[in-house]
Amino acid sequence: MTQKIYEYTMPGGHHWSFRMRRGTQLRLTDIEGGANVALLFYNPENLLERYNAPDTLKGQHTFKLTKGNCLYSDMGRSFASIVEDSFGWHDTVCGNLSAAACLKKYGEHNYQDYHDDWYLSGEDSFLTELAKYGLTERDMAANLNLFSKVMTDDDGNLQYDSSINKPGASITLRFDMDALVILHTCPHPLNPATDYPSHPVLCELTTAEPLTADDYCLNHRPENRRALDNNRLYYLEPPFATQAGNA
């Protein structure tokens, strides 16, 4: 039985950061449909360890992320597991909307004139949050984009697909290790919208059920088991319990 810890409705075009503890969950809901949530993860005890997009994809033999997938660190551990997902296809290859691209695409809407309705790029949002922890542009790894589906055509060109965008789509991340979470709700770099997309996202922090031997994410890929075993070694914990609670 999970218990809610905190709830926050994050406006579109904003940024945020916080620390998640191992054994907690982050549930994100696209309230209106069409949101993008960009995420980076760092180990708060060693900020050199961070989310690794290439290893996450090649280790699980996939181009998209959905329920069952783990989000790997560059030390071979799992930051988080996707335990629930009603959206079904999340991008982790297209990166971030740069400040220059945001200005060119949507025009200048600065804070002095527009206040909270200014147009923020994902790049500036990440840099603002990273600076709070002594991190810089050099520390900004390839990010995950939730609620954004990107496909390839026959020539290998990337295409943004809005056909599955719908209000109420949600995803739940169970954190398998302590993590510094950096996120923003700025537009996806391939979003074809001519007006700056700004959609709110409900963020719910809850407790998580203990990881058991029959866990879906643990058994989804052999690589996931290795990553979660690496977590277990990192925290010096016993083997995964059975559903009945026996070692």
Any overview of this molecule?
- The longest helix has 13 residues, at 222-234.
- The two termini are 20 Å apart.
- The chain has helices spanning 53-60, 99-106, 111-114, 122-131, 216-220, 222-234, and strands spanning 4-10, 15-20, 24-30, 37-43, 46-50, 70-72, 78-85, 144-146, 149-152, 158-161, 169-175, 179-184, 201-207.
- The strands form 3 sheets. It has a 6-stranded antiparallel beta sheet. Strands 2, 4, 5, 8 and 12 form a 5-stranded antiparallel beta sheet that branches. It has a two-stranded antiparallel ribbon with strand order 9-10.
- The model has no long low-confidence stretch (mean pLDDT 95).
- The protein has 6 helices and 13 strands.
- With 247 residues, it is of the alpha+beta class.
- The protein has one domain (7-234).
Offer a concise description of the structure:
With 247 residues, the chain is an alpha+beta fold. It contains six helices and 13 strands. The strands form three sheets. Strands 1-13-3-11-7-6 form a six-stranded antiparallel β-sheet. Strands 2, 4, 5, 8 and 12 form a five-stranded antiparallel β-sheet that branches.
